[in-house]
Amino acid sequence: MDDDHCSTHSDNHDTFEPFSLTEFTGDYFGTYNEEDFEWPEVRRTMESDSETQEEDEDEDCDELGDGDAIAAHNAELEHGWEHPVDPASQDIDFPDSEDVPLQPQPCHAERRQAEAPLGQHPTIEEFPRRGAGAPLHCAGTTAFASYKDKLSGSENVWAPFTSRVDYEVAKWAKLRGAGSTAFSELLAIDGLHDALGLSYRNSRELNQIIDQELPCRRPRFKHKEIIVANEAFDVYSRDIMECVKALYSDPDFSQHLHHAPERHYVDSDKTVRMYHDLHTGKWWWSTQAKLETKKRGATVIPIILSSDKTQVTMFRNKSAYPVYMTIGNIPKEIRRKLSRRAWILFAYLPTAKLEHITNKAARRRTSTNLFHACLRHILEPLRVPGEDGVAMASGDGVIRRGHPILACYSADYPEQLLTTGIKSGECPKCDVPRDKLGCPDIPVKLRDLVAILAALSLVDEDYGMWTRACQECGIKPVFRPFWEDLPHANIFQSITPDVLHQLYQGIIKHLIEWIKEAYSEAEIDARCRRLPPNHNIRLFMKGISSLSRVSRTEHNQICRFLLGVIIDIRLPGNLDSARLIRAVHAILDFLYLAQYPCHTDQTLNLLDDALTHFHDNKGIFVDLGIRANFNLPKLHFFRHYVHMIKLYGTTDNYNTEYTERLHIDLAKDAYRATNHKDKYPQMTLWLERREKMLWHDNFVQWRLAGDPPVQDRSPPDMDYRCALKMTKHPTAKRVPLDHIICDYGATFFTEALACYVVRTNQPTLSAVQLEREAAHIVLPFQTVATFHRVKFHTINASGYCDPTATIDSVHCQPPRKDNKGHIIPGHFDTVLVNEGDGGTTGVNGYRVAQVRVVFTLTSHAAAALFRTPAKAPTHFAYVEWFTPFGQPKANHGLYKISRIIRNGERLASIIDISDIRRSVHLIPKFGPVVPREWTSSTVLELCSSFFVNSFSDRHAYLTII
User: Fold this and answer.
1) Are the beta carbons of 490 and 470 closer than 8 angstroms?
2) In sequence order, which residues have a C-beta less than 8 Å from that of residue 478 and are 6 or more positions away?
3) Sign of the dihedral defined by the CA atoms of residues 254, 259, 262, 268, in that order
């Protein structure tokens, strides 16, 4: 033994021969055609729904993944048949591409320096004119007090319900319960109504109470017929100004609202800008300046819109076309939590397919005009207040002069084209020609709004002149688009980046297909099957080549290990794979950087650099014959990300993922609550009643608890910190020491614990003295209590730890059998250990180790072993060490480590559990062809070298640099 480290022998595992099977050839993605971007009536309607539904299923699977059923299933799949090894791939022999740098790459030190200010309190520069966002006066009454005045019998806390039980049952029925018929049948059970003391006997009576006695805090839907092409179409919408006032006056948001723009800097000299919430972007500042030149004291109300047609049934092709809105005054941390209800569904657009119009071009034109006619009617109330302002009361009763102005329009690519009137295959923001979209050197220039508005104004003068002028401006001849008269709005600027559809369901989707075409699908699948398990990694035990209708969640999970599995695979024709690895590395860097919740000018340079590195290396896909060009609108849009983040803050201000989730809560659930006939009146009424109950529940909580304490503004949350959490009781209370050695693989457990005790009691001893003293330690016990899982919870920028959200976990569980008798292999995770001087980010002061057992000692044992038992740790871990971090590899940027073997034995020791920073996912160095005897459960034992996966989750990407 060396110092207080001990060693264990590697385990031996049986091998197996893979079965042969026929190779599968899938579809690949080519260039964009007109057909790829059908107009709304014919484009895909189930994509977003499958994404959200599969996301829910994935989340459920993640929870079950810790259970024996999933583990047993994965163990069974480990030895399932798969593609045989291609003999030709074993004969290729040339240097590892990971060690062949092609050009200088930004080093990790540069990234650490650029990201160091993130998450810190910024230096704030307020808008120079004091009247910006200033109160006019106070109304003297808060939103809750006003609501209370409208309630009859308000002296009763539960009014209009008679008691707590009466109220809780009503809330359950409307927010959690079954359908109205089932609820009525439940209350019809003899004696139940009287036993509970309810004021209603069925769903109809409950609905009457909600409709007649609960005040409306959000506007009601109204029906309107829109005439387009001599045909009437039904539109159900709310007054958008009332929606704005409802959000602005919500007391849940009052102490968090942003009323004026600010410039945030990372330094006191105010030289490097910081961007996070919308009020820190340049758009709000410039808009505020424009309003102040006309009349001082304006409060900008940034309107964020999102629209997308969605399928509300699985099979009968029923769809809805909801439009959502929120305001940028509400911080993004609240807006992105759907439970906070900061988004409002304020309109249902017509979903008519216009099949009676046989001419395809005429049908598309009519569909476009219908979309704009409906939104023009819905958004008309914004026109005058946006210019002149209107009195707006926040939830605390303070009144300001608000100017509601369209700031952002969040949508996928087909919806962006429909909104802007731009032709398919082109950029909805700039005028770069479609055949030049893949060129990174062509300057991007926002479309000329003045010229476009001038062309659109010719519609009433001369039809031919109007169409020609629109064509010259690069847009379709749309009849009076909804954004034409909106004050201070530029729709081409308002179109925002879309992480969901442009990244995960866009370029990442393409990239995976390109990789599958470049390499052997069988080899990629074999590597996916042999990745070691980790809390943040989903194991695709059947590979990824056969996946169909891949969801956003699945693309996200594939991205977490994609780079690591392709490092050693050889390309056909003896082509060097270094350029392909660098291209994949660059796209993944862009993906992770684009989702930062906070950016500075320096980190935005990193984002630009990542895109540049992809363009520098993308030629490998052309050389392989996979791509002829890169004129992809979604890829081109990457060039707008930096500018848009500077304008509107980080991408989590306007991510379409939020509204995709709203489809389930507000559209699909609403449809399921109807009788599927004349659906919209029922869907809107269901939503109104639900919103009433939610608002009333907030009011009841306020009456019970009073006003919440005023909270200080927190710095941007970068999720650097996490808190370790142990269960109150051990998984196994008394595990014999021989089982610790045999079942857990902690071969030198007693020796390592003896070394730890001596080192704790006598920290000044030399290695030789420590070894000698440890030999005299006698453990006063024969069993220990073990824990099979360690959890980590996130800590936000304010220091609050959310105990309900597990962001990471470490497993150290020996082999066992499930309730069906199936053998479940042992699961021993690898972790990042702080050796004493580790920082918040970076790997200096850290080392990787594999946890074999987590245990605790009784108070009697601790008193017998330690001189100061009170200072001894409460929980310990036996770990096996890997080599220290060196320099990351040039092309993929991952650190390469291996187990420390001395005299044929693994170096091991006992550590304090609090020294574990987080779990770490290791990707085996597979070589040109993965050994088929390796499995997911044995690869950590059989493989000798690994790459530390910094893409396993966002926290790992931020910290392992």
Assistant:
1) no
2) 368, 369, 372, 421, 456, 470
3) negative
Question: How far apart are the C-alpha atoms of 369 and 454, rounded to whole Å?
Answer: 18
Residues in the chain: 961
- Are 640 and 430 in contact, with CB atoms under 8 Å apart? yes
Whole-angstrom CA distances from 952 to 49, 58, 434, 846, 947 are: 26, 16, 35, 18, 12
| Cβ contacts of 357 within 8 Å, gap of 6 or more | 229, 363, 366
Q: What is the DSSP letter of 46?
A: S
Secondary structure string (H, E, C) spanning 352-385: CCCCCCCCHHHHHHHHHHHHHHHHHHHHHHHHHH
> In degrees to the nearest 10, what's the CA dihedral of 242, 248, 250, 256?
170
What dihedral angle (degrees, nearest 10) is formed by the CA atoms of 680, 683, 686, 692?
-80
CA distances from 62 to 370, 535, 808 (A): 43, 9, 12
CA angle 384, 387, 389 (to 5 degrees): 80
Let me know: does 759 contact 779? Beta carbons within 8 Å.
no
Look at residue 48 and tell me whether its pLDDT is greater than 60: no
The DSSP element (H or E) to which 232 belongs, if any, is strand 231-237
Which residues have a Cβ under 8 Å from the Cβ of 227 and sit 6 or more positions away?
A: 233
CA–CA dist 525, 743 (Å, integer): 31
Buried b vs exposed e over 450-489: b needs ≥16 C-beta within 10 Å? eebeebbebbeeeeeebeebbeebbbbbbbebbbbebbbb
**Helices 180-187/203-213 angle, 10° precision:** 110
CA pair distance 650, 595, nearest whole angstrom: 7
> Which positions ≥6 away from 724 have C-beta within 8 Å?
790, 791, 792, 913, 914, 916
pLDDT digits (tens, 9 = 90+) for 392-433: 999 999 999 999 999 999 999 999 999 999 999 999 999 999
Torsion of Cα atoms, 150 then 155 then 159 then 160, to 10°: -60
Q: pLDDT at residue 883 above 60?
A: yes
Per-residue pLDDT of 351-394, as tens digits, reads: 988 888 889 889 999 999 999 999 999 999 999 999 999 999 99
Could you tell me which of 71, 25, 23, 29 has the C-alpha nearest to residue 819?
Answer: 71
Amino acid at residue number 935: T
pLDDT tens track for 452-490: 999 999 998 888 999 999 999 999 999 999 999 999 999
CA dist list (Å): 497 to 31, 643, 814, 868: 21, 10, 46, 58
Output the six-digit token pair for 75.
């163990």
Task: Find the distance separating the first CA and the last CA of the chain, reported in whole Å.
Answer: 32
Is residue 79 scored above 80 in pLDDT? Answer: no
Quickly count: other Cβ atoms within 10 Å of residue 595's Cβ: 15
- Grouping H, G, I as helix, E, B as strand and the rest as coil, residue 690 is helix
As given in the structure block, the two tokens for residue 466 are: 């109007």
Instruction: Retrieve residue 624's tokens.
Output: 């392989």
Nearest to 618 by CA among 594, 593, 636: 636
Q: How far apart are CA 581 and CA 617, in angstroms?
A: 9
Written as one letter, the residue type at 203 is S
Instruction: Determine what percent of the chain falls in helix, strand and coil, rounding each to the nearest 5.
Output: 40, 20, 40
> Which DSSP string do the residues of 98-135 spell out, in sequence order?
GG---S----HHHHHHHHTTTTSPPEEEE-SSTTTT--
Q: Which of 771, 710, 630, 902 is closest to 256 using CA atoms?
A: 710
User: Do residues 829 and 811 make contact, with C-beta atoms less than 8 angstroms apart?
Assistant: yes
| The dihedral formed by the CA atoms of 675, 677, 679 and 682, expressed in degrees to the nearest 10 | -50
Distance of CA 282 to the CA centre of its chain: 25
